[in-house]
Amino acid sequence: MLNHLFLLNAGGHPTIISSVFVVTGSFILLLVLIKHFAWEQITEIFKQREERISNDLDSAEQARIQAAAYESEIKARLETSKHEANEIIQEAKKIGESNRQTVLSETKEEVARMKAKAEELVAYEREKALAEAKAEVVELSLQVAEKILSHDLSLENQTALIDQYIEGLGTNHE
C-alpha cells in the first residue's frame, strides 16, 4: 500500500526504480524498528542460547570424563573380583584335596584297624577251636582209656574198640 501511495505521488506511473526505492526504504525502516524495539531482546536470547549450549557441552564433557573414570573403576573392580574368585577356587581346591587326603588316610587307618581286629578274632577263634579240640581229644582219650581199663582186652580188641569209638564220634557230631 505504501508502494502505491509513493508511486502515485511520483507521477502516476509506477517504475522499477521507484519500486526498488520503496522496497529498500521499507527494509531499512524495518531494520531500524527492529533495532529500536527488539534487537536487545533478540541478542539476549541468542546469548542465553549460546550459554546454554556451552553449558550443555561442558556438562557432556564432564559426563564423558566421569563415565570413563567409572568405566576404569568398574574394570579394576572386575579384575579384582576375578582375582579373588580365582583365589577362592584355588583355596577350595586345596581344602578339598586336604579333606580327601584326610578321609583317605582315616579310611585306610580304619581298614587297618578292622583287619587287625579281624585277624585277632580269627586267631582267638582258632585258639578257641584248638583248645576245644584238645579238650575233646583229652576227653576221648580218657573215655578210650576208661573202656580199655574196664575191659581186659587184647591188642586187636583194643584197636577195634578205638576204631568203633572213632566211627561213633563221626556220626554223633555230624
Architecture overview:
α1 (2-9) crosses α2 (16-37). The longest helix is centred in the middle third of the chain and has 112 residues, at 39-150. The chain has 174 residues and is mostly helical. The mean pLDDT is 83. It has helices at residues 2-9, 16-37, 39-150, 155-173. It has 4 helices and no strands. The chain is rod-shaped. It starts with a helix and ends with a helix.
Keywords:
0% strand; 174 residues; mainly alpha; single chain
Q: What order do the helices and strands come in, and which of them pair?
A:
Layout: H1 2-9, H2 16-37, H3 39-150, H4 155-173
Helix pairs in contact: 1-2
Quaternary structure state of the chains depicted = single chain
- Specify the biggest β-sheet: none
Q: Name the beta content range.
A: under 5%
Helix content: over 70%
Give me the count of strands. 0
How would the global form be characterised? rod-shaped
Decide which structural class fits the backbone: mainly alpha
Order of SSEs: HHHH
What is the count of helical runs?
4
Average pLDDT figure: 83
Q: What ranges have pLDDT less than 50 throughout 5 or more consecutive residues?
A: none
| Straight-line distance between termini | 151 Å
Using the CA coordinates, give the radius of gyration.
Answer: 64 Å
